[in-house]
Write a structure and sequence with these properties.
The protein is α+β, with helices and mostly antiparallel strands. It has one domain: outer membrane lipoprotein receptor (LolB), chain A (Clam), CATH 2.50.20. The protein has an 11-stranded antiparallel sheet with strand order 6-5-4-3-2-1-11-10-9-8-7. A hairpin with a 2-residue loop joins strand 3 and strand 4. It starts with a helix and ends with a strand. The N terminus is likely disordered.
Length: about 160
């Protein structure tokens, strides 16, 4: 019984209220088979948690919280399950958080420094990814899986 309580508390704490140290408004485009979004969003993050608040016409339509689990308005799931259901099962568990924060993906594979940012091109039988991070924009496109993330600063 003690172990069940610990497991339940772990899952509940993953979606609990967090204090974020950084918050910014962005224009975000997300295109996947299950997620389609193009409008204003707020990106909030702390040392180990990220929250996307997606808005359409000023109304909050979806919150995505990324920490040990990924939580949507509908509930929480393991990162690997989120990738399988919403992105691609071939992605590493940290890919969504890394994209949102503009951090390197795939352990810096094919990393190339460009201007005030970097670029990665990752191709194999499962993915064909172009990932660019610049001073004002994050761009992720996977041609094989038909996935696009574009995150731009609002000036």
């Amino acid at each position: 019984m003690k172990y069940i309580l610990i497991v339940v508390l772990f899952f509940l704490s993953a979606c609990s209220i967090k204090n974020y140290t950084y918050s910014s408004s962005k224009f975000i485009i997300i295109k996947t088979d299950k997620l389609k979004f193009s409008d204003l969003a707020y990106v909030k993050n702390s040392a180990n948690s990220v929250r996307l608040e997606l808005f359409v016409a000023g109304n909050n339509i979806q919150n995505i919280e990324i920490n040990s689990l990924i939580c949507l308005n509908e509930g929480c799931m393991l990162r690997s399950n989120f990738n399988s259901e919403y992105l691609s099962e071939n992605y590493p568990d940290t890919i969504l958080q890394n994209i949102v924060l503009g951090q390197v993906i795939y352990d810096k594979k094919n990393f190339k420094k460009i201007g005030y940012g970097f670029e990665q091109k990752i191709q194999n039988s499962n993915v064909d990814i172009l990932y660019k991070v610049t001073q004002n924009e994050i761009y992720f496109k996977d041609k094989n899986n038909k996935i696009l993330f574009k995150i731009k600063d609002i000036k």
